[in-house]
Amino acid sequence: MKRRQKKPQNLIELFQATCGWCGKTIPPDTEVFGGGGKVRPGVDLSSKAGQVMPLYLAGPDKTVLVAVTGADSEARRDGHDFVYMTCSAACGERLRAAFQGEIELGKRL
Predict the structure, then answer these.
(1) Domain residues for 37?
(2) pLDDT, tens digit, 9 for 90 and up, residues 67-86
(3) Disulfide: which of 50, 64, 73, 87 matches 19 by Cβ 3.0-4.6 Å?
């Protein structure tokens, strides 16, 4: 007998329920940690505003989910083009460091 394949979650559900760094499931009503970042000059994410998208990080060779900030969002007013969510402060720091590593990698290219 064939097993029924599990229906894949949409990106928003994955973003809300999965640590952006380690990939662990984050249970509902659990404290989460987040941060945000800016894209390099000349990159326009306005068509993705309010959406979740995968973002590849070359340094750690991993793809993370980020939410692109909306035009009128508080995160945008705080200067972020995208935000991420993690299960712990340690994972948040690792992801922040990975984004910083991408910036340094981009400067060398």
Answers:
(1) 12-22+31-108
(2) 999 989 999 999 999 999 99
(3) 87
- Dihedral sign, Cα of residue 63, residue 54, residue 82, residue 109: positive
Question: pTM above 0.85?
Answer: no
User: Is residue 97 in a domain?
Assistant: yes
Quick one: tokens of 82?
A: 């995208």
Phi-psi region of 49 (alpha: psi -120 to 50; beta: other; left: phi over 0): beta
Give domain status of residue 92, yes or no.
Answer: yes
Alpha carbon distance 66, 36 (integer Å) = 9
**Is residue 16 a part of any domain in this protein?**
yes
DSSP E strands, the chain: 33-37, 52-57, 62-68, 82-86
> Residues near 14 by Cβ (< 8 Å), separated by ≥ 6?
52, 65
